[in-house]
TrEMBL record:
Organism this protein belongs to: Geodia barretti (Barrett's horny sponge)
MF GO annotations: oxidoreductase activity
Residue runs in coiled coils: none
Span list, region Disordered: 54-73
Highest taxon, organism lineage: Eukaryota
InterPro entries: Ferritin-like_SF, RNR-like
The name this protein goes by in its record: Ferritin-like domain-containing protein
Residues annotated as signal peptide: none
Length: 365
C-alpha cells in the first residue's frame, strides 16, 4: 500500500540518486512509530520516553561506541569509551529516572536562594566554630562530587538513567561545596583547619573503591547517610535564617543521593543474591566507623566535632551541653542508618548477629 510517507521517502531516494548522495541511513533506524507523550503533571520526563524497546535496558551490553540505547548500530563505528560498567545490576535501580527528574525540578541557587542578609555579627567563638564546620563540609562535599564523577565516563550509555542521576548529584554536591564556602566567608571569618576526613567516620575509604556498588555503599549509604542526619539537625546549629535555609536545601538534595544508594543496593540484592555477602562486608566496614563515632571518647576531640559541640551548646562556655547534644545526633545517625539498611533488604544483619550488637544498643540508649 502506497502512503504519503512512502512516496516522500521514494522521492528522497530518487533525489539522492540524481545527486550521488548516500542516504542509506534513512532506512537504518530503531523501533519506529513510537510516540512519547508528556505526563499531564510532570511534563516529558525520562519515564515518558521509556517505551517500547527504547525503555529496555539490557542485562549486559557490549556497546563501547557511545551509541544511544535504541539507536541502530553502525558496524564501522569506533570505540569512544572505556566502559567498565557493562552489567545492568552493577549500577541499576528502578527509580533512577524519577530521582533524576526530581533533581532537575528542585535545583536551587546558592547565590540567590539563600537570605545572606540575615547573617549578623556573632560572638567570636560561635563564628570560628561555624567557619571550622564549613571548612569540614566544604571538603566533604568536594569528595562527594569528585568520586561519582569517576564513574560517569565508565558507565555504558545503555544505562543512561543512573548515569544522568550521578551527573545531577555532581551538580548538587558542587553547589553544597560552594554554599558552605560562601558561608565561611560571609561574616568576616574564613576557612579554618583542613579536617582529616579519612578518619572522620563520615567519608571513610570511598576513594579506594574498585567497583560501583562498593563505592555506593561507602558514599551513598554510610557517608552521605551520616551527613544527611547532620543536615536534618542543622537548625540546631544555626544562628540565622541563612544557615537554616542552607541546611534544609542541602538535606533535600542529600536525601536523593541516599535514596539512590538504598534503591541500588536493593536492586542488586534481588537480581544477584550471590553478591549479598560481598555487600555485607562493605556494611561491616561502614559500621565500624559509626561505632567509632559513638563510643570512642576521642571521636569528639576533632576540630569539626568540637566546632559542632560549641554551636550546639551556644558557645564554648556551654561546651559540655553541646557535646551531649552532639552524641544524641550521633545516635540518630545510627538509627537512620539501620532504617536504611532494612529498607535496602539487608535488615537480617541486625537480627542474626552479623552486625555489631552495640549498634542496636546505641539506637535505644
Amino acid at each position: 500500500m502506497t502512503t504519503p510517507q512512502n512516496e516522500s521517502l521514494q522521492a528522497i531516494k530518487e533525489y539522492a540518486d540524481d545527486y550521488d548522495l548516500d542516504l542509506s541511513w534513512l532506512d537504518t533506524r530503531g523501533e519506529w512509530g513510537i510516540k512519547a507523550a508528556p505526563d499531564p503533571k510532570r511534563g516529558m520526563t525520562l519515564s515518558s520516553i521509556e517505551i517500547g524497546s527504547y525503555g529496555e535496558a539490557p542485562d549486559t551490553t557490549d556497546n563501547m561506541t557511545g551509541r544511544p540505547r535504541g539507536a541502530a548500530q553502525r558496524p564501522d563505528a569506533y570505540r569512544i569509551g572505556g566502559y567498565g560498567v557493562r552489567t545492568k545490576s552493577e549500577i541499576w535501580l528502578d527509580n533512577a529516572a524519577a530521582l533524576y527528574e526530581e533533581s532537575l525540578q528542585r535545583q536551587w541557587s546558592s547565590a540567590t536562594d539563600i537570605p545572606w542578609h540575615t547573617i549578623k555579627p556573632l560572638p567570636d567563638d560561635i563564628e570560628r566554630a561555624q567557619c571550622q564546620l564549613d571548612t569540614f563540609l566544604t571538603e566533604v562535599e568536594f569528595v562527594a562530587a569528585d568520586i561519582p564523577a569517576r564513574w560517569v565516563a565508565t558507565t555504558s550509555p545503555d544505562y543512561f538513567e543512573p548515569r544522568m542521576f550521578l551527573l545531577s548529584q555532581i551538580m548538587d554536591e558542587s553547589r553544597h561545596l560552594d554554599v558552605f564556602r560562601k558561608r565561611a566567608l560571609a561574616n568576616g571569618g574564613g576557612l579554618m583547619q583542613r579536617p582529616d576526613i579519612t578518619t572522620s567516620g563520615v567519608v571513610g575509604s570511598i576513594d579506594l573503591s574498585r567497583e560501583f556498588t562498593e563505592m555506593s555503599s561507602r558514599l551513598h549509604i554510610s557517608g552521605e547517610g551520616a551527613v544527611l542526619t547532620l543536615f536534618r539537625m542543622g537548625e540546631l546549629m544555626s544562628y540565622n535564617e541563612a544557615e537554616k535555609r542552607i541546611y534544609r536545601l542541602a538535606a533535600q538534595d542529600e536525601s536523593r543521593h541516599v535514596a539512590f544508594g538504598v534503591m541500588h543496593m536493593r536492586y542488586l540484592s534481588e537480581t544477584e543474591p550471590d553478591r549479598r555477602e560481598e555487600i555485607h562486608c562493605y556494611l561491616d566496614e561502614g559500621e565500624r566507623g559509626l561505632l567509632a563515632g559513638n563510643q570512642n571518647p576521642a571521636a569528639i576531640d576533632t576540630p569539626s566535632s568540637e566546632a559542632m559541640a560549641i554551636l550546639l551548646g551556644g558557645g564554648i562556655n556551654q561546651y559540655d551541653e553541646g557535646a551531649r547534644k552532639l552524641m544524641a545526633i550521633r545516635r540518630r545517625q545510627v538509627r537512620e542508618y539501620v532504617q536504611r539498611i532494612r529498607s535496602a533488604g539487608f535488615g537480617e544483619r541486625f537480627d542474626n548477629g552479623r552486625a555489631d550488637p552495640r549498634l542496636l544498643q546505641i539506637m535505644w540508649s
